[in-house]
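User:
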Amino acid sequence: MIRKIIKIDENKCNGCGACAVACHEGAIKMINGKAVLIREDYCDGLGDCLPNCAAGAISFEEREAPAYDEKAVLAAKQKEIKAPSVMIPRMSQLNHWPCQIKLAPITAPYFNGANLLIAADCTAYAYANIHEDFMEGKVTLIGCPKLDFVDYSEKLTEIIKNNNIKSVTVLRMEVPCCGGLEMAVKKALLKSGKEILWKTVTVSTDGRILD
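Assistant: Predicted structure:
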């Protein structure tokens, strides 16, 4: 049948994972750092994922696709609820060291062509799937301006100026003190003189993605 369904542009996707969180049907999953429509019959075509994609990687299209299967979606959700709890080891997505902004070198091989994640310390505790949804495929730097009593903008400026950074994602908490981290990134991007795709994702104190 011909119907409205989402389309994901892999080239625009920056791997933030916000669309996968917003998709209540489970049609979108993060695979190798990119959003993928894994089940066309799980996509209801309503587009809850669209406004959550800051990179503009998701759009609607009308094409031949299986009908939305609400029963299958509900059955899958019920299966997840009934499934026995099994401890499955998770792989860390932290692939470099050190990760603290204050300790990170200005230049390092892993910065070459990197998608940079600059995360507030507390996000790792507030958002349970930070490794899978945000850190995968990115170089992660963490910090807290309130605890470090430092303006990170100078260090971040040098990192951005001296390396081929492809994109920057700021992952912050909703609390006011995290504004310092976001402001430092904005200043660094401006001082670097480079035009780099960047965005901010905010996590609530109860672990929800707010934007």
